[in-house]
Amino acid sequence: MKKIICILVFIMISSQLISCEKVQETKEYGSPSNKINYGVSKIPNDLSSYDDTVTRTLMGALFEGLVYKSSDGKIVPQLSDSYSVDKNQLEYTFKIRRDIYWSNGEKITSTDFVNFFKEYVDNCKSLDDLKELSAVYGIKEYFTNKKDFNKTVAIMADGEYLKIRLNFKDDNFISALALPKYKLRKDFTKLKNYRNSFKDLIYSGSYKISDVKENIITLEKNKYYYNKDNGVNTINLVIQNNSEYALASFETNKIDIMEEPPINYLQKLRERQEVIEYPYNDVKFIAYNCQEKSPFSDAKLREDFYEYIQGLISDDKFSERISGTQVLSFSDNSEKEGKSLRSEPKSSLMELKSVTIYAEDNDTNKEFLKYVTEEAKKDNLIIYYKLFSMDDLIEELKKGNYSMYIDDFDEDSGMTNKFTEESLKSSKGNGNLSKSQVLENSKKDFVRVPMFRKNKVIVKKSYIQEIEEDFYGDVILNSLKLMNNTSV
Prior knowledge:
Structural class: alpha+beta
Strand content: 15-25%
Number of strands: 21
Distance between the termini: 29 Å
CATH class of the largest domain: Alpha Beta
CATH architecture of the largest domain: Roll
Shape: globular
CATH superfamily of the largest domain: Dipeptide-binding Protein, Domain 3
Number of domains: 3
Largest sheet: 6 strands, mixed
Mean pLDDT: 85
Number of helices: 18
Helix content: 25-40%
CATH topology of the largest domain: Dipeptide-binding Protein, domain 3
């Protein structure tokens, strides 16, 4: 992999030195003063939902909500100036800021929030999508009957105040309103097709979209945003095909910031003090194929395999290979909980001819699976793996021809891939439990089991002064600042 990176870097540097004209071309996306190029793995197709960290990061720049959750877990007013709760903890009153405007210059009012909640509910596909709002008086009735939102649902505009009344006390209600999905926006139809309609959209956040190309989204500051000191003037979100390509772009100054660099290059970046690492709530877990035709329909075999893998990744060699990891263990049958030690695979595993693990094609999954297959081979256990794009992975999983797959679960937002999402919804006997609770239940039978949690890694140029992340580990784009008088 180092060889590939070196070749890419060499090619990109060489292309810049061929002629002055070509240097000018590369400068189109280079970072002059007050402009940052952010390398991303994809550009969202839809701005009405929050399916991944890139989408959440972009949406956080374009839209804001009543409140948000800071990295330390505190609820902070955002488009509201303050909020209060009555003594019964059933009615919430938000005082809306007086200095907030849409990106077209129109004032944002409490009525805009009522209209947003109506449009949000109208675009929900099931009551499960309204789980966080289920305590709001009339919300379920309106979703079922779609009759007069203002008379049915207790979300009311009252001058500069917004009032929300609940049916019953919900200690998590304010925290739920801080979720990215409840940021203020308009016209969900255009949001779903924003690539063709971004000029017609209006934004409540610090940035607006000024241009969309196949591989680049350009954001410019919203001149009507209340905090004019926040952020740089322009941010380009630039697609990088993979972490190696992104690193080559970073090394040749085509991008200024990126996430999750190639693992084997991380130490060099650390030495140059170009890395920021912080704990992330993303858990890697194994999901077994428990269908009758699969050998892993046997719960004991699932447990044996899990404990073997836990032993492998508890080895110091794993933490050296993938740094910033915390191995997770929950096995009630193990007296060595939290202290798993490597051991030979049990006879039940040795009876298997081979095991095939599916996963999304990314650097962490690749290095993890390389490590596992190499170490298992020393124990004469044959493990294969296949890597796919996320869309292709989901299609393969639907066919059912796999032993197990690797997925991510965000403990704060509840995000998983769409295949896991549907599996959790169809799990029997879980009623109205949250995804976290359903996953917790599935661990008992070793159906879905956690392996490790990994730190989030941000790589940035030294002239980027500040980076802040929210509670969900997503970078707040309007926190990005350049050193004074910087010109790259």
